[in-house]
Structure formats: C-alpha cells, structure tokens
Specification:
The chain is 39% helix and 14% strand. The protein has 407 residues and is α/β, with parallel strands linked by helices. The strands form 4 sheets. A 7-stranded mixed sheet has the order 2-8-7-6-5-3-4, with helices on both faces. A 3-stranded antiparallel sheet has the order 9-13-12. The protein has a two-stranded parallel ribbon with strand order 1-11. It has 2 domains: 150 residues, Aspartate Aminotransferase, domain 1 (Alpha-Beta Complex), CATH 3.90.1150.10; 239 residues, Type I PLP-dependent aspartate aminotransferase-like (Major domain) (Aspartate Aminotransferase, domain 2). The protein is built from 14 helices and 14 strands. α3 packs antiparallel against α11, α5 crosses α10 and α12 runs parallel beside α14. The longest helix has 23 residues. It is globular, with a radius of gyration of 22 Å. It binds pyridoxal-5'-phosphate. The site of pyridoxal-5'-phosphate has 13 residues, from α5.
Length: 407
C-alpha cells in the first residue's frame, strides 16, 4: 500500500517549474544591498520612477471608501474594462468591447490565463528566442510544449519568415509575439508585423500579442498590434497588456487580456475559481492611470532614451562585448562571448551563467545571463536606473575585464 512516505512530495508539474531567473537575480542583488554591499543591479524589469501622484492619490482616497472594500466582478470593474477597451482603441487602434476584456493580476497572470484557456495537453506553442523567461514555463504549466524559434543578433533578434515553416507541426496552436521585446528590445516594423500576421493567419494559428512595452519605442519606431494590421486575425488573437511599465506601476498588479468573448468567458470562469478579482483599490488606480494623459510615460521615455545611448556606448567600448542598439523597452541585450574563458582572479567562466556570478562576486554588479532567456552567451542589462549608476556599473565590468587575463 502506498503511504505518504512513498508518495511523491511535490507534483511533477510544479517540481519542474524553474524559478524566474530575473526575479532571482534581482532578489540576490537586493539581499546583498541589504547587507550593506554596494551592488549595482541591472536585473530589474521595472521603471525606477514612482507611480504618478495623480494615480496614487486616487488609490489613497479609494481606500477610505467602503464600497471599495468588497469583491468586484471577477472580470474586473465595468468602468475599468471599458477604460481598457477605450485605451486600446486610442493607443493601438484595435476596436474591442468591454466584454472582451479580463482584468488580471498583472500581465504575467494574463499570460498564464491565456495558455491555461487555449493550450491543451501536447499543444505546441512557438516562442521566438531569446524569450521572456515566463513564456515557456507558463506553456508547460498548461500542459503544452514550448517550441523555441531561434533568432540572431545579426537579424536584430527578429524571426525570419522564410524559416518559420520548419517549426510547424499538426500540433502547433499558438505563436507568441512581443514587440518591443523583453529581453532584446527588438521592435518589428509595420512590414515585418504585417507579414508575420499573415503567416499566423494563413497557418490557422492563434497569436498571443504581448503589448506591455507598447509606449517604450525609440527613434520614431512604433509598436504594431497584429490584429490591427490583419483584422482576420482578431478572432484568434489574445492581446496582453497592463499598467506596469507605462505608468511605473509594477507593484500594483493590474494587467489584462483581450480576446474573443468565448475565450474571455472561459478565462473568467477559470479566474473565478483561482484568484477572483484583482484588488479593488488597484483597479481604481488603473482607471485613473488609463483615463489620464500619457505625459508621464513620455517623460520616462526621454530619460530611457538618454540611458539607452549611454549603456549602448559603454557596453560596446568593452573589448569582447557586442551590443546592438535596442529599439524599444528598457533592456540592452549584449553578446558576452568574448568575455568567457578568461581568468578572473583564478576563476575561468565558460558560460554566461558562471560569468554573471563572477561579475556579481568580484565587481558587485548584477546582470541576468542569457541562459534565462534561452540564449547562453548573452546577458540582459536593464537600463531602468540613473545615468550615474549605469556609468558606474558598466565601468566596474570594464575594469574587471581589463584586469582579467587570457587563460
Ligand atoms: C514581456 C513581458 N510581458 C509581461 C510582463 C508582465 O508584467 P506584469 O505582470 O508586471 O504586469 C513583463 C514584465 O516583466 C514582461 O517583460
């Protein structure tokens, strides 16, 4: 007879989930800082600006109103769902009804809900790599199979249409699209986005379009929403978005998914049995965020534009580093191949994961190694930090490299 001792302690599904490497490195850097170590962290995936005061003030007074001390409908406050529909039309041009919106506990939850709702056991999901670390894990949790579609630095980390067909099988169900991309900062232009939308439509796939960085695009680039460019895709498109990056609201946990009504209704049932509604107060704050102007994000964007130029220049000045200019988001994704297999005070890293440890231990700088994004040999540097810190942090890496020797 099976006893509790012979039974597996953790479920296989959960035991196999990898920790979010980006959150782990951030936690490690913050723990060192708490011990008084002067660490410069390039790990954070969040703007360093405070949430605009007008938004925080609405939340503060919402706290004092007993009507906000209650559950809201699972799918979200009707006013917020409408505000999301209105904002989507304003910003991307996609016309949707409020009934096509499900308010979630951040964009990450929207992604989890999307896969849980659409992906069956063994369904394959195409994920261009380097990918945001959550996508493959969330696919696996849904019982699906993540299929990596490699891209290269030379191609600006964008998929090449001619190569996509080879990843198709009868089980392929969905394509994950994110532009601007985390971790690479790549932005698909109108033509590339249109071609991709046609390919997805013609192959009868679904698309999950992650638009969380839509407002952080530089040099006159624009983030295109695939179902806007190819309306035929609207019936098989899920748009994921949230207030986190646009309004510096990562801690408030408000995101959403937009999809055809039957998908939203199924995802809402699922959410009603798992997390129910997002915090009523945070939803009130999100209404204020979305109905107000986009002034704050344009101020942040100006700062990010200067920081982007700085980090791009400083990284490329280090011999052995190759960093393309990011077109969007707030990440630089650099090849560090040239820094491997050198001697750093007796340690010779052969992978970027080992190199990141050396950089943290010896230079007190936290970076996220490419292994976290499916592409060893690279590292992600978030530039959501002041220019002084960027200069000091990259300066420390440059000094460490200069003091290393060929092994
Ligand atoms: C590509 C991408 N999508 C979605 C999210 C989710 O953001 P949140 O759950 O904070 O709304 C993030 C956050 O880092 C991201 O980088």
């Amino acid at each position: 007879m099976e006893t509790h001792q012979t039974k597996q302690r953790l479920s296989t599904r959960i035991a196999n989930v990898a920790e979010s490497a980006t959150l782990a490195i951030d936690a490690k850097a913050k723990a060192l800082k708490a011990q008084g170590v002067d660490v410069i962290g390039f790990g954070a995936g969040e703007p360093d600006f405070p949430t605009p005061e007008r938004i925080a003030k609405v939340a503060a007074s919402a706290c004092l109103d007993p009507k906000n001390h209650r559950y809201t409908p699972t799918a979200g406050l009707p006013e917020l769902r409408q505000a999301i529909a209105d904002k989507t039309k304003r910003d991307s041009g996609l016309e949707v009804a409020a009934s096509q919106v499900l308010v979630t506990n951040g964009g990450k939850h929207a992604i989890f809900n999307t896969f849980a709702t659409l992906i069956g056991e063994g369904d394959e999901v195409l994920i261009p790599s380097p990918y945001w670390t959550t996508y493959p894990e969330a696919v696996r949790l849904a019982g699906g199979v993540p299929i990596e579609v490699p891209t290269t630095l030379e191609n600006g980390f964008k998929v090449r249409l001619a190569e996509l067909d080879r990843y198709l099988t009868p089980r392929t169900k969905l394509f994950v699209h994110v532009s601007p991309s985390n971790p690479t900062g790549a932005v698909y232009n109108r033509e590339e986005s249109t071609e991709l939308a046609h390919w997805i439509l013609n192959n009868n796939l679904w698309v999950m379009s992650d638009e969380i960085y839509e407002h952080l695009v530089y040099d006159g680039n624009k983030a295109w929403s695939l179902p806007v460019l190819e309306p035929g895709l609207a019936d098989r498109a899920v748009v994921v978005n949230g207030v986190a990056k646009t309004y510096a609201m990562t801690g408030w946990r408000v995101g959403w998914m937009i999809a055809p009504e039957d998908v939203i209704s199924a995802a809402t049932n699922f959410q009603s049995q798992s997390t129910s509604n997002v915090s009523n107060i945070a939803q009130r704050a999100a209404i204020e965020a979305l109905q107000g102007p986009l002034d704050e994000v344009s101020t942040m964007k100006k700062a990010f534009t200067r920081r982007r130029a700085l980090i791009h220049r400083l990284l490329n000045e280090i011999p052995g580093v190759n960093c393309p200019l990011p077109e969007g988001a707030f990440y630089a994704y650099a090849s560090l191949d040239g820094l491997l297999k050198r001697d750093y005070s007796g340690i010779v890293p052969t992978t970027t994961s080992e190199l990141a440890d050396v950089i943290l231990d010896q230079a007190k700088v936290a970076i996220v190694p490419g292994e976290a994004f499916g592409t060893p040999g690279y590292a992600r540097f978030s530039y959501a930090m002041g220019e002084k810190d960027i200069a000091q942090g990259i300066g420390r890496i440059a000094e460490l490299v200069a003091s290393s020797t060929a092994s």
